Amino acid sequence: MDDYQKSSFAAKTAKGHLIEHDIYTKGAGPVVVIIQELPGIGPETLHLANKFEAEGFTVVLPHLFGPLGKIAVGGNLLRVLCMRREFRLFAKGKTSPVVDWLRALCQKLRLDHGVPGVATIGMCLTGNFAISLMADDAVLAGVASQPSMPVNDQNALHMSDGDVAVIRDKLDQVGPMKAYRIAGDNMCKAEKFASLDRAFNDDRERIELNTLPGKGHSVLTLDFVDEDGHPTKEAFDNIVTYFRKQLAV
User: Fold this and answer.
1) Is it true that the peptide bond before 150 is cis, omega within 30 degrees of 0?
2) pLDDT confidence of 249, banded at 50, 70, 90?
3) How much is the average pLDDT of 26-34?
4) pTM surpassing 0.85?
5) SS (H, E, C) 174-191
């Protein structure tokens, strides 16, 4: 990560708890915030970030937990379970406090980069965060990749009814966001997409729900195949087009 610019950002949650994390920035152009998944910011996540930079975007990687540059699923799970002021893995009907920090980060990035708004990608345990962040004026596009929380109930949402109402209104203004899962995924099952469909798409499409064929979990990282014609590569290409449109590139 030598070619990334490292900085630190601190902000308070709604309950007044101060959260501070490092962020890594690379590139020039419209801003895409990639929120790490449970395995961490490993080679696959860096490959994803590099691909967005090559497409002309500024990539921002918040470092929320775990070692940099490698995968540590078990260790990171223990870390997240201990970070109770930031993550609520089993919470139903409410989101994790770290979303407040991410919202403040997106607002700062909009001002610092002088852009109308930013795009976000959440994956696995952070997949739901990309949906919640759509409520903020600083966020103009969002992708929820294999959103898995709450991890113990595929039929529940990691956000309140009030959050859903605000997000619905925002998506009515800016257009549908995108969500992805792989058909054989046991952590983000069809039931999870069905719950999102009920909450957001009852009268119109607000979240474009895409289920890719095959087995796997991480659409854009660990199970990503960088080959033309592969469903995950097609998903990436579609996301690039979506971000360019939403961020007025």
Assistant:
1) yes
2) low
3) 97
4) yes
5) HCCEEEEEECCCCCCCHH
Q: How far apart are CA 25 and CA 155, in angstroms?
A: 36
Pairwise CA distance, residues 29 & 115, whole Å: 9
User: Cα separations (Å) of 14 from 92, 99, 130?
Assistant: 18, 10, 18
Instruction: State pLDDT tens for residues 161-218.
Output: 999 999 999 999 999 999 999 999 999 999 999 999 999 999 999 999 999 999 999 9
CA distances from 137 to 48, 57, 115, 167, 171 (A): 25, 20, 12, 11, 11
- Residue 232: name the closest of 48, 34, 35 by CA: 48
Place of tokens 């009515």: 172
* Tokens standing for residue 107: 């607002």
Rounded to whole angstroms, the Cα distance separating 236 from 242 reads: 10
| Residue ranges with strand state E in 67-165 | 118-123, 139-145
Tokens representing residue 31 in the block: 């801003």
Measured at the CA of 214, the angle between CA 208 and CA 220, to 5 degrees, comes to 55
Do 36 and 63 form a contact (C-beta atoms < 8 A)? yes
- Is the peptide bond preceding residue 30 cis, with omega within 30 degrees of 0? no
Angle at which helices 231-246 and 43-54 cross, to 10°: 50
Give the pair of three-digit tokens for residue 186: 């046991």
User: What's the distance, Cα to Cα, between the start and end of the chain in Å?
Assistant: 27
SS3 sequence of 191-241 = HHHHHHHHHHCCCCCCEEEEEECCCCCCCCCCCCCCCCCCHHHHHHHHHHH
Tokens 């033309």 found at: 228
Amino acid letter for position 156: A
